[in-house]
């Protein structure tokens, strides 16, 4: 991955906030303070900027990311809030709570940030510097914790530099974060709200706000999830054939790099003709959806190298190909 040569340290004053927002609007990566942990922020509406988050973190898989908004009204333009979601937003926003809700028809969070799902994770942080940047950026900002994959979440600018120096454009330094653990995540997707991740808001407080117990979903747990309700991974309807040298008759084709000899089917897309893995990651979910929407029986997919973002792309493709 070719990152910026320098990671700027911005101070948490008007000039630093304006510079951070400007970088985000230009598709760059900026570590932002929130009340929980520092987030590695990028324009959530820009697939390519979001792909560069995964590249900088060296994340081996594409989990859906949280999109940050400056206030409740901005969040409500991105998602559909049922009664429990509204009650939680009213009680805890701004603050360390993330709500997973169905994406609205006006949602501008890109498909990579949503990992191809129809739902979207939204959060209105309370940190004043974060809110000022979000206000100035004027678009949803995706931000997972600003650490390299497998390392602990950063609660100080120095932690971010230790993990991501020269891999991101700037760190907006506002001193240590207050909460230190990530936001609580509650899914409100119809039916009983579910706690996907315990975090900065205690469970009892969440339950008091909605007047009912939360269903607890343990990550990687064995409890079966209702299909479509909480599916954390988008799976195409079509069968998927990986590491295909060329499409067979009747297959749709998802290429990468130079195309194989011979005619391609009408239903074909190339993730990156030049073989750029960041571009391929940015195109992945939208391309899969585009092909799958035409209802092919099988999508054949060219081999994707395992370097850089290739690991995360292959992880995603293996899941898409898994029997179901
Ligand atoms: O405190 C925080 O929440 C920090 C700060 C920076 O805001 N952010 C953070 O983001 O922890 P991230 O992207 O690392 O957390 C994403 C979590 C993952 O566990 C992911 O599975 C879940 O949110 N998530 C996001 N979208 C989802 C969706 N549509 N359905 C289910 N889970 C979702
Ligand atoms: Mg994290």
Distance between the termini: 34 Å
Ligands, deduplicated:
threonylcarbamoyladenylate, magnesium ion
Portion of residues within helices = 25-40%
Please identify the structural class as seen in this structure: alpha/beta
Residue fraction in strands: 15-25%
The main sheet orders its strands as: 1-8-2-3-7-4-6-5-9-10-11
Condensed summary:
The chain is of the alpha/beta class. It has helices at residues 14-25, 47-57, 72-78, 83-92, 128-137, 157-164, 203-210, 277-293, 310-321; strands at 8-11, 30-32, 39-43, 66-68, 97-102, 119-123, 141-142, 170-173, 184-187, 194-197, 215-216, 239-241, 252-255, 268-270, 298-301.
Walk me through the structure.
This protein has 324 residues and is of the alpha/beta class. It has 9 helices and 15 strands. The chain has helices at residues 14-25, 47-57, 72-78, 83-92, 128-137, 157-164, 203-210, 277-293, 310-321; strands at residues 8-11, 30-32, 39-43, 66-68, 97-102, 119-123, 141-142, 170-173, 184-187, 194-197, 215-216, 239-241, 252-255, 268-270, 298-301. It has an 11-stranded mixed β-sheet, with helices on both faces. It has a 4-stranded parallel β-sheet with strand order 12-15-13-14, covered by helices on one side. Helix 1 crosses helix 5 and helix 2 crosses helix 8 (277-293). Residues 220-232 have low confidence and may be disordered. The structure holds threonylcarbamoyladenylate (TXA) and magnesium ion. Threonylcarbamoyladenylate is lined by residues 34, 36-37, 39, 63-66, 98, 100, 114, 117, 119-121, 123, 143-145, 182-183, 185, 187, 196-197, 232.
């Amino acid at each position: 991955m070719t990152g910026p040569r320098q990671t700027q340290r911005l101070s948490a004053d008007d000039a630093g906030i304006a510079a951070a927002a400007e970088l985000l609007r230009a598709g760059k990566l900026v570590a932002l303070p929130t009340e929980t942990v520092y987030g590695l922020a990028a324009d959530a509406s820009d697939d390519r900027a979001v792909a560069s988050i995964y590249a900088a973190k060296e994340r081996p898989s594409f989990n859906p990311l949280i999109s940050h908004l400056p206030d409740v009204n901005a969040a409500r333009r991105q998602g559909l809030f049922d009664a429990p979601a509204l009650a939680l937003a009213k009680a805890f926003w701004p603050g360390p709570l993330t709500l997973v809700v169905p994406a609205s028809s006006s949602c501008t969070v890109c498909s990579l940030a949503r990992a191809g799902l129809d739902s979207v994770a939204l959060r209105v942080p309370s940190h004043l510097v974060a809110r000022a940047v979000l206000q100035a950026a004027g678009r949803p900002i995706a931000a997972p914790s600003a650490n390299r994959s497998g390392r602990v979440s950063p609660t100080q600018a120095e932690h971010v530099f230790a993990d991501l120096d020269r891999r991101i454009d700037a760190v907006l330094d506002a001193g240590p974060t207050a909460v230190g653990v990530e936001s609580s995540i509650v899914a409100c997707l119809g039916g009983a709200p579910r706690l996907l991740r315990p975090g900065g808001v205690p469970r009892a407080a969440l339950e008091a706000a909605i007047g009912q117990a939360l269903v607890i979903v343990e990550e990687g747990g064995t409890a079966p999830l209702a299909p479509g309700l909480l599916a954390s991974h988008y799976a195409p309807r079509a069968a998927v054939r990986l590491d295909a040298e060329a499409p067979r008759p009747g297959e749709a084709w998802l290429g990468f790099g130079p195309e194989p000899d011979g005619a391609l089917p009408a239903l074909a897309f190339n993730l990156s003709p030049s073989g750029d893995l960041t571009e391929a990651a940015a195109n992945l979910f939208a391309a899969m959806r585009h092909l799958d929407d035409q209802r092919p029986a099988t999508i054949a997919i060219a081999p994707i190298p395992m370097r850089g973002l290739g690991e995360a792309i292959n992880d995603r493709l293996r899941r898409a190909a898994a029997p179901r």
